[in-house]
C-alpha cells in the first residue's frame, strides 16, 4: 500500500520467541467517529466515500491476501465450531440468535457473485483518520485483501448509521460514486461480520 494510500510506514519488524514486534510511523489526523466532525459531517463523509473508492482502485493482480467469501465462510465455520463467536456482541437485530443459526443464514443467503477489489476489510469510522475535513490516512489493515466491495461498504454504512444516523449515509455513497445500493449484500456482509 506504500505509495498508493496514506498509511503508516513500517520502521521495524522483528520476532522473538513467540512474540512479534512492529514499529510504524504515526498517521496524522483524528478518527472519523469523533464528534468534532459534526460541524461539517456531509463533507467529511463524502471524503470518506472517496477514500474508500481510492482503496478499491488499488490493483489486486499480485495481492497475496485472500479475503474472498469462500475463505471467509470457512473461517466463520471454524470460529463457530470452536465456540469463538461472541454472541453477546451481535448487532441489536440479531441479539438472542445463536452463531449456529446465523451461520445457517449465511449459507442460505450467500451472494452468487462477488465484485472483487482490494478491500480494507474493516472499513468503519474509527479506522479512517481525518485532517481538515479530508481523509488523511487509514489504519487497522489486519483484514485487508481481495474481497467483494460490499465487505467495506456494508461496514461503513453500519458504522455511519450507528454513530451519526442513517440520514447521513447518502453523503458517503455520493463520495464513493454509488447511486444505487444492493441492500441484500449490505445485510449479508454485516451478518458475516458478526463472526469476526
From TrEMBL:
Gene3D superfamilies: 3.90.1200.10. Keywords: Antibiotic resistance, ATP-binding, Kinase, Nucleotide-binding, Transferase. It comes from the Bacteria. Residues 5-181 form the Aminoglycoside phosphotransferase domain. Transmembrane segments: none annotated. The keyword Signal does not apply. Pfam families: APH (PF01636). SUPFAM superfamilies: Protein kinase-like (PK-like). InterPro entries: AGP_Transferase, Aminoglycoside_PTrfase, Kan/Strep_kinase, Kinase-like_dom_sf. NCBIfam families: APH_3p. Belongs to the aminoglycoside phosphotransferase family. This is Aminoglycoside 3'-phosphotransferase.
Amino acid at each position: 500500500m506504500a505509495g498508493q494510500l496514506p498509511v503508516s510506514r513500517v520502521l521495524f519488524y522483528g520476532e522473538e520467541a513467540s512474540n512479534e514486534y512492529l514499529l510504524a510511523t504515526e498517521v496524522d489526523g483524528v478518527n472519523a467517529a469523533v464528534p468534532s466532525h459534526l460541524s461539517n459531517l456531509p463533507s467529511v463523509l463524502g471524503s470518506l466515500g472517496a477514500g474508500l473508492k481510492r482503496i478499491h482502485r488499488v490493483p489486486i493482480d499480485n495481492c497475496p491476501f485472500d479475503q474472498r467469501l469462500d475463505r471467509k465462510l470457512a473461517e466463520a465455520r471454524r470460529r463457530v465450531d470452536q465456540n469463538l463467536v461472541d454472541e453477546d456482541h451481535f448487532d441489536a437485530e440479531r441479539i438472542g440468535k445463536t452463531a449456529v443459526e446465523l451461520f445457517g443464514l449465511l449459507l442460505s443467503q450467500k451472494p452468487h457473485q462477488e465484485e472483487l477489489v482490494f478491500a480494507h476489510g474493516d472499513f468503519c469510522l474509527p479506522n479512517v483518520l481525518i485532517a481538515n475535513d479530508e481523509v488523511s490516512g487509514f489504519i487497522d489493515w489486519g483484514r485487508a485483501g481481495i474481497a467483494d466491495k460490499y465487505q467495506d461498504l456494508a461496514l461503513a454504512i453500519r458504522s455511519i448509521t450507528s454513530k451519526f444516523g442513517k440520514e447521513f449515509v447518502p453523503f458517503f455513497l455520493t463520495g464513493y460514486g454509488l447511486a444505487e445500493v444492493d441492500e441484500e449484500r449490505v445485510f449479508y456482509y454485516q451478518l458475516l461480520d458478526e463472526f469476526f
